[in-house]
Amino acid sequence: MVGFSMISKLQGNHDLNCIILSDTLQNGGLSNLSNFVNIMNATVSGKFPFTLMAKPIGSACNLNCTYCYYLEKGKLYPGASYQKIMTEKLLETHIAQTIYSSTEPVVLFAWHGGEPIMRGMDFFRKVIQLQKKYGQGWMIENSLQTNGTTLTDEWCKFFSDNKFLIGLSTDGPEHCHDHYRVFRNGQGSFAQCMKGLELLLKHKVEFNTLSVVNDYNSKFPEEVYRFLKNIGSRYMQFLPVVEWIDPAAKTDEMRILPPDTRKNAEVTDWTVDPVDYGNFLIRIFDEWVRKDVGEYFVLTFDCVLENWMRVPPSVCVAAKTCGHAGVVEYNGDVFACDHFVFPAYKLGNIGENLLPDMMNSPFQQQFGQNKRDKLPAFCRKCEFLDLCNGECPKNRIVQTPEGEPGLNYLCAGFKIFYKYTEPYFEFMANELQHKRLPANVMKWALSQSG
What span, in angstroms and rounded, lies between the C-alpha atoms of 139 and 123? Predict the structure, then answer.
């Protein structure tokens, strides 16, 4: 085992740490729970909070979405002769470490993929059992992202009974959704996704929607937004797709590249045009700010208002720095970020290292600070820097007008969106500062357009 130098300094008992982690991984249980808790408490002391997105079945999925950035991550483990699933023994390590490394009263578990439902219900029943076993004294919340096509009454009852928050992936009405979200035979998945949604509604499962904004559905903003409202989504996330690939990659190599690659790379056909993305947000905002404030919630708009108010934004892409949202793969490997699952960004493995050491390592701290520190001069002097903060580092793949690398591909779109919405966010921020409702902006917006 490796990676215990920091633990040894903190706890002073290197052998005990190894024994406890080995017991967790190999025997599926913590034989000396009190010692483990003491070790975690010592390790967590003074550390920043973090979250992990767990991939219980790795990149495996029943869909073959054209734009999916994660399907090819299975190529990271080409020599694995066994099924690529998170074992129950490793699951116990993940749950115990996550709970006992928490610095917050609420412990968040996020289950992602691929399609995490493919891991099976018995696995998630075990999740609940282990969370109860190790989570006494903590409030525990679970979220799960799904394409919805394999949902059943049994699944939805389980989610309802155990208060899972479900993220449903849907790109809008049928012609938008089926443009890229297809099964392996090329058939669109919209009908099956909507059947899954009906079951979520039937069992009163709390859900929100995640819509990937691409070169196609970006042309239909109002249609996408109204569709999501009509199906009952009150909380919406619009994720712009920007994929940077190596067109010469071999079949056993990953095509999607990190932003700092030195290879000859190009953006994909399905990558959203920057100006189209800006206009997509503007046209949705126009309807939202006049009719829907306080009733429907768009994550992008929430984050802009938070930055106007100078409070920490809800998601890392809008913050000055990042690095507090890692990924644990099916085999326990931990990576810096869901969009940086590349060998160079591997932090360790939960079977050999403690989560606080990995997520608070100098490498990970530098990774998070690079979001701020590596902004080009063009960004640093931008009037919208405090709203944008360079957005996600994975999208910083183009050069500034002066030829400096590290400019966000979507910069032009963000600028037109921030400029257009500025008076509305200024109004809402002022209302909040005076302890009034930001929803008052709707009447004001209508008066401005009248």
Answer: 21
Q: Which residues contact 281 (CB under 8 A, 6 or more apart)?
A: 221, 238, 300, 413, 417
Mapping DSSP to helix (H, G, I), strand (E, B) and coil, where does residue 140 land?
strand
For residue 47, what pLDDT is reported? 60
Contact status, residue 156 vs residue 136, Cβ threshold 8 Å: no
- Cα 218 from Cα 220, distance rounded (Å): 5
Which residues, 6 or more positions from 214, have their beta carbon under 8 angstroms from its beta carbon? 67, 171, 179, 180, 241, 270, 271, 272
CA-angle at 328, arms to 106 and 251, nearest 5°? 150
Strand order from edge to edge, sheet including 165-169: 297-298, 235-240, 207-213, 165-169, 139-146, 106-111, 51-54, 325-328, 333-335, 346-349
DSSP 405-442: EEE-TTHHHHHHHHHHHHHHHHHHHHHHHTT--GGGHH
Which of 417, 113, 65, 372 has its CA nearest to residue 241? 65
pTM of the model: 0.90
Identify the DSSP state of 209. Answer: E
Consecutive sets of 10 residues in the chain, 450 residues long: mean pLDDT of each?
25 34 43 48 61 96 96 88 85 96 92 97 98 94 98 98 98 98 97 98 98 98 98 98 92 89 86 98 98 97 96 94 97 97 97 95 97 98 97 96 96 98 97 95 88
Rounded-to-integer distance, Cα 391 and Cα 300, Å: 11
Tokens (6 digits) for 197: 């949604």
Question: How far is the C-alpha of 387 from the C-alpha of 319, rounded, in Å?
Answer: 9
Name the amino acid, one letter, at 109: F
Cα 267 to chain centroid, rounded: 21
Give the Cβ contact number of residue 195 at 10 Å: 14
CA-to-CA distance for 272 and 255, rounded, in angstroms?
A: 18
Distance from C-alpha of 412 to C-alpha of 273, rounded to nearest angstrom: 10
Give the helix/strand (H/E) hosting 210: strand 207-213
At 150 the three-state DSSP class reads coil
Residue 182 DSSP one-character state: B
Active site residues per annotation: 338
Strand partners, 213: 240
Contact (CB, 8 A) for 167 and 176: no
